[in-house]
């Protein structure tokens, strides 16, 4: 079983690239953001709990997202591998993921990190707000909080995975096709 992480700030293009990568390499794409939005749309207790946090641009608790990942792994044993999009977002999540994979003699194969400038994040999210209608994309203060949260809680994962030796960086401000080609080169 292969495990790839698509890493980067909000608006880096993770969702767009994930669809192409999952198709080409026959991986199951898991977006914790998409899973949470489904829970919100269905009005489940988990969705209701997550709604305020998401709409304020804050992270939902580690245990919640780790639980979603754990059950998605358990329910999909026939796939070639997984592509994690938007997970992990904290060191604690990365540690829990490592533990989960170590328990089944697996590991994270590669962290594909898309890099973009903070100004580009703003432009891209504002554009996406018009297309997808996400509430957390619509308000500049929420976008800023998501960027700040990324720098404070998620960016430290770069060193975590650099130390693990499976981290690679892809400039995210090229065209969609160029980014995809660069990612494919890294996957090999
Ligand atoms: P995304 O679609 O990846 O931009 O995620 C949208 C929102 O869902 C984030 O701003 C967080 O509030 C929440 N979320 C998604 N993934 C995670 C995660 N791994 N840990 C904590 N919160 C998350």
Briefly, what is this?
This protein has one domain: Rossmann fold, CATH 3.40.50.300. The protein has 10 helices and 5 strands; from the N terminus they run βαβαααβαβααααβα.
Describe the structure.
With 188 residues, the chain is α/β, with parallel strands linked by helices. It has one domain: Rossmann fold (3-Layer(aba) Sandwich). The protein is 61% helix and 14% strand. It contains ten helices and five strands. The chain has a five-stranded parallel sheet with strand order 2-3-1-4-5, with helices on both faces. The two termini are 16 Å apart. The model has no long low-confidence stretch (mean pLDDT 97). The chain binds adenosine monophosphate. Adenosine monophosphate is lined by residues 10, 32-33, 36, 53-54, 57-60, 65, 86-89, 93, 136, 146. Adenosine monophosphate binds at residues 10, 32-33, 36, 53-54, 57-60, 65, 86-89, 93, 136, 146.
- Regarding CATH, which class? Alpha Beta
Q: In order across it, which strands form the biggest sheet?
A: 2-3-1-4-5
List the secondary-structure elements in sequence, H or E: EHEHHHEHEHHHHEH
Number of helices: 10
Strand content: 5-15%
N-C termini distance: 16 Å
Q: What is the CATH topology descriptor?
A: Rossmann fold
Q: What is the CATH architecture assignment?
A: 3-Layer(aba) Sandwich
Could you outline the blueprint of secondary structure elements for this entry?
Elements (H helix, E strand, L loop, with lengths): L1 E6 L6 H12 L2 E4 H11 L2 H11 L6 H14 L5 E5 L5 H12 L7 E6 L2 H15 L2 H4 L1 H15 L2 H8 L2 E5 L4 H12 L1
Parallel strand pairs: 1-3, 1-4, 2-3, 4-5
This protein binds adenosine monophosphate (AMP).
Adenosine monophosphate binds next to helix 2 and helix 3.
């Amino acid at each position: 079983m292969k495990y790839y992480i698509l890493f980067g700030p909000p608006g880096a293009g993770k969702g767009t690239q994930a669809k192409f990568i999952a198709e080409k390499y026959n991986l199951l794409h898991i977006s914790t953001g998409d899973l949470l939005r489904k829970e919100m749309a269905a009005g489940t207790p988990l969705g209701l709990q997550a709604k305020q946090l998401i709409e304020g641009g804050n992270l939902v608790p580690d245990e919640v997202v780790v639980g979603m990942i754990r059950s998605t792994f358990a329910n999909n044993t026939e796939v070639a591998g997984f592509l994690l999009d938007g997970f992990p977002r904290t060191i604690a999540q990365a540690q829990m993921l490592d533990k989960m994979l170590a328990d089944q003699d697996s590991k994270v194969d590669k962290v594909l990190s898309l890099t973009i400038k903070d100004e580009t994040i703003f432009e891209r999210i504002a554009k996406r707000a018009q297309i997808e209608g996400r509430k957390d994309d619509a308000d500049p203060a929420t976008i800023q909080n998501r960027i700040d949260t990324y720098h404070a809680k998620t960016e430290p994962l770069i060193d975590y995975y650099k130390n693990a030796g499976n981290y690679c960086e892809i400039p995210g401000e090229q065209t969609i096709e160029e980014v995809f080609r660069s990612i494919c080169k890294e996957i090999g």
